[in-house]
Amino acid sequence: MKLILLGPPGAGKGTQAKMLMDRFGIPQISTGDILRAAVKEGTPMGVKAKSHMDAGGLVPDEVVVGIVRERLQKSDCVKGFILDGFPRTLPQADALNESLVELGKDLDAVVSLEVDVEALVERLTGRRTCRDCGRGYHIKFDPPAVEGKCDVCAGVLFQRDDDQEETIRRRLDVYNDQTSPLVAYYRDADVLVVIDGMQEMKVVQDQILKSLQAD
Ligand code: ADP
Ligand code: AMP
Prior knowledge:
Elements: E1 2-6, H1 13-24, E2 28-30, H2 31-41, H3 44-54, H4 61-72, E3 81-84, H5 90-103, E4 109-114, H6 117-125, E5 127-130, E6 136-138, E7 157-158, H7 165-179, H8 181-188, E8 192-196, H9 201-211
Parallel strand pairs: 1-3, 1-4, 2-3, 4-8
Antiparallel strand pairs: 5-6, 5-7
Helix pairs in contact: 1-9, 2-3, 4-5, 6-7
The protein binds adenosine-5'-diphosphate and adenosine monophosphate.
Adenosine-5'-diphosphate binds near residues 10, 127 and 137.
């Protein structure tokens, strides 16, 4: 299964990607996660990316295109992959097409999750992530059993620096300007599946699986 999860920040891409990863035994490729790891390690790529990420802008296309091109060549992508947060611009989508042609792979679907702006802000301001295992939570919609502590590994939960309201609004503007044209792009390519992402996580999950005829 070769999928793209498309949607604004907070739409539930990471949440649904983890479910699909378990269901199909294929990796989640989150450019945001890869970039955050590079920033933490202080690699040259991380240093280059940090200012863009802190400001809520996009990291230059050539950087993320390079990350994904390399990642898709790894052996765990043979059965498929879930792209989460990539592509985010038309040049990135064109570059992905080129990589897929080179690799002899076709996309099965691009799942677009639709969520209202105010719901996105509420989701992102309440998002928490485990520092150790990366499991995502929400203080209201998916709280841990013990506040601040991961249910799975007891790791400490943290809030992302860019999940502050001002940066969130900037990221949503960037989505509207630069990423939302990809909905029409993939509709024209006849691979788009639109899902109402306002529904509960489990309902969204069932509808994605149904649309992939895999429930
Ligand atoms: P994205 O990867 O698209 O930025 P996430 O999957 O990280 O979004 O979800 C953002 C926040 O919203 C997380 O705290 C997550 O727990 C919560 N969330 C995800 N899906 C839903 C949903 N269907 N309803 C309510 N909250 C959700
Ligand atoms: P995310 O984890 O998907 O919310 O991404 C966090 C941040 O990483 C974004 O706000 C961007 O600064 C950067 N980023 C992630 N993916 C991309 C991408 N495909 N293109 C450009 N920047 C990206």
